[in-house]
Amino acid sequence: MNRFLVFVCFFVCFCCVAVEAKQPPNIVMIFCDDLTNQALSCYGHPLKLLDTPNIDRLAQEGMLFRRCMVPNSICGPSRAAILTGKYAHVNGFCCNGDEFDGSQPTFSKMLQTAGYQTAMIGKWHLKSNPTGFDHWHILPGQGSYYNPKMIKNGESLQHEGYVTDIVSDLSIDWLKAVDRSKPFLLMSQHKAPHREWSPALRHLGWNGDRVFPEPETLFDDYSGRGRAEHEQDMTLEKTFRPLDAKLEPPRTISDAQKKDWDAYYGPRNDEFRKQNLTGKDLVKWRYQRYMHDYLGCVKAVDEAVGKLLDYLDSAGLSKNTMVLFSSDQGFYLGEHGWFDKRWIYEESLTTPCIVRWPGVTQPGTTSDAIVSILDFPETFLESAGQSIPSDMHGKSLAPLLAGRLPSDWRKSFYYHYYEFPGGHSVRKHYGVVTDRYKLFHFYEPDIDYWTLIDRKQDAQELKNVYDQPEHAKVQKELHGELDRLRKELKVPAVDPPRRGRKKNQKSKQKS
Fold first, then answer.
1. 10-14, 141-145, 343-347, 416-420: lowest mean pLDDT where?
2. Is residue 260 part of a domain?
3. Which end of the chain is less crowded, N or C, counting CB atoms within 10 A of the terminal residue's CB?
4. What CA–CA distance (Å, rounded) separates 106 from 376?
5. Is residue 220 part of a domain?
C-alpha cells in the first residue's frame, strides 16, 4: 500500500512538472523612452552618474547586452520596429508623426492568437490605436509627467500623480487580474526619461546638489567631422529651453504640487538669474541642471522596476516569466555638448537591453554580440513556441540567452535615420556598423558625404577617417557590406513617403 501511495504521489508530481514545463513563459517588457546606458550603474559608466539597484538586480539575475542597437534612433520608429520585427521602410513608420498601420502583422497579434493575454500600458506614441492587445491604457502623444491624461480601451481618463508611478501601478493592477491558467504578455512602457525630464516631486534634490563630473566632449567643436554635425540643433548651448531648465513650471502641475516644485527650484533659479551666466559657464550650469532632472526621472523608473519585480515574486510568477528591460534608443548626456538622439554615433545607436529568463539564462551574464530591438519579437515568439515569420528582419535572442552564440550570428548591422526636416535638424543618413567600425552616408543632394569611424582608435568618435590610405581596405569592405545589407533588406533608393501627414508638413513633435 505504501509503495502504491509513493507511486501515485510520484506520478502526480511528474504530471504536474510536465504540465508546467509545457506552459509557455509569461512575457513582461519594461520599456523606457530615451534611457541611455550611461545612466544605469550596471553598465559601468566611468562617471558613475547614478545607482540603479533594481535595474542592476535584473542584470544580476539575467543577461546584460552591451551593444543592443536600434535601426532608427527615434521614438516612434523604434516602437514600430519592435511590434513588427521589421525596418521602417517595410513597416511604414519612418518618422515621428507618421501613423502606424495597425492592420499589419505584429508579434502581439501572433501571441494573442496563440492564447496569450495581452496588454499595452503607458507610452504608445504611434498615433493610431493599439491593435493586438486585449487591454490598452496609453498616454496620448508624448503624455505628461504630472497628472497625465490617458486613454483606456478608447475612453479618455484623467489621472493624478506622477506618470512613472501611474504606469507602474496600472501594470501591476493588470497583472493582478490576469487569468493565471493562461500565459500573458505585458508591455509596460514609461514616458521617462523623455524631455523635459521632470522628476517625481520626491526626487527633487535627490543628489544633494552634487556637482556631476562633465563628459570630456562637453565642449566639442566638431572638428574632423562634416556639415551635419556642425549644423544640428540639439546642444545644451543653443537648444536648451526654459522648460528644459525648469525656469518655468510644467504645464500640467497642480497648485499643490507646484508648492513642492517651487520650494526646490525657486531659490536655485533665483540664484541662477543673479549670476547672469554666459558662454561656457552657462553650458556648465545647464549640464548640472540637466543631470539632476534626467537622472531624477531614471530614479523613478528604477523604483518602478523594483515594484514590478517584487510583485512577480510575491505572486509566484517570477519563475515562469521572461522580463525584458530596454528603451527605444540611447540618449546624449552632454557628450559632444548634446542631448537627444538620432545619430548613428554610439550614445544614440545603442540602448539598454537586459533579459531575465529563469531556467534558461545564467544569472549575471553579459553579451557583446551585436543585437537589436528588432530581435525582441522573434525572441518572444520563440519563447512562446511560435513560428517566426520569415519576413521579420531580426533574430531570436534565445540561443544567446541560453549561453550559445550561433556561428551565423550577425557581424554587422544596418542603420537608417529619415527625419529631416524635423526636430533638432539631424540630417538623413544610413550606414553599417560592426564591432569596430562605422561607415555611414549623409545622402541628401545638398549635403552628400561619407564618414568612416574607427572605434578602436577613436572611442569617442571624433574623427572621420574616410579616404585615408591606411583605411582603404576597410573602407572597401564596408562599402561592400553596406551594399549587401541594403540589397538583402530591399531598402528602396527613394525614401518612403511620410504617413499620416499632409504633403511637405513638418513634424510638430520634438521627440
1. 10-14
2. no
3. N
4. 12
5. no
Residue 248 within a domain: no
User: Between residues 261 and 22, which one has the greater pLDDT?
Assistant: 261
Is residue 453 helix, strand or coil? strand
Q: Closest by alpha carbon to 412, among 430, 386, 395, 436?
A: 436
Could you write out the DSSP letters of every residue in 495-507?
Answer: PPPPTTS-TTPPP
Whether residue 246 is predicted with pLDDT greater than 90 in this model: the reply is: yes
- Please enumerate in sequence order all residues whose Cβ is within 8 A of that of 27, keeping only pairs 6 or more positions apart, or say none: 111, 116, 183, 184, 185, 186, 321, 322, 324, 380, 383, 384
C-alpha gyration radius of the chain: 23
CATH number at residue 380: 3.40.720.10
Residue 139's domain spans which residues?
A: 24-199+287-488
The pTM assigned to this predicted structure is 0.94
Whether residue 317 contacts residue 289, with contact meaning beta carbons closer than 8 Å, is answered with no
Q: Please indicate, yes or no, if residue 386 is contained in any of the structural domains.
A: yes
Q: Cis bond leading into 193, ω under 30°?
A: yes
d(CA 305, CA 311): 10
Place of cell 515568439: 381
Least confident of 2-16, 301-315, 352-366, 444-458: 2-16
Q: Which residue has the cell 499643490?
A: 256
- What is the rounded CA–CA span in Å between residue 39 and residue 150? 28
Asked whether the beta carbons of 341 and 96 are under 8 A apart, the reply is no
- Each residue of 334-354: b (16+ CB within 10 Å) or e? bbbbbbbbbbbbbbbbbbbbb
Q: Torsion angle, CA of 395/30/303/241, rounded to 10 degrees?
A: 100
Number of domains in the chain: 1
360-378 CB burial, b ≥16 within 10 A, e <16 = bbeeebebebbbbbbbbbb
Peptide bond into 389 cis (omega under 30): no
**Grid coordinates belonging to 62:** 539575467
Q: Which run of H or of E encompasses 444?
A: strand 437-444
H or E element, residue 366? strand 365-367
Q: Which of 325, 258, 385 lies closest to 56 in space, CA to CA? A: 325
pLDDT at res. 3: 52
Instruction: For residue 174, give the amino acid letter.
Output: W
Question: What is the rounded CA–CA span in Å between residue 237 and residue 284?
Answer: 9
Task: Read off the amino acid at residue 123.
Answer: K
Cα gap 404→389, rounded to integer Å: 22
Q: Which long-range CB contacts under 8 A does 286-290 form with residues at least 24 apart? A: 286/236, 286/237, 286/240, 286/244, 286/245, 287/212, 287/214, 287/218, 287/236, 287/334, 288/211, 288/212, 289/245, 289/246, 290/197, 290/236, 290/240, 290/244, 290/245, 290/333, 290/334, 290/339
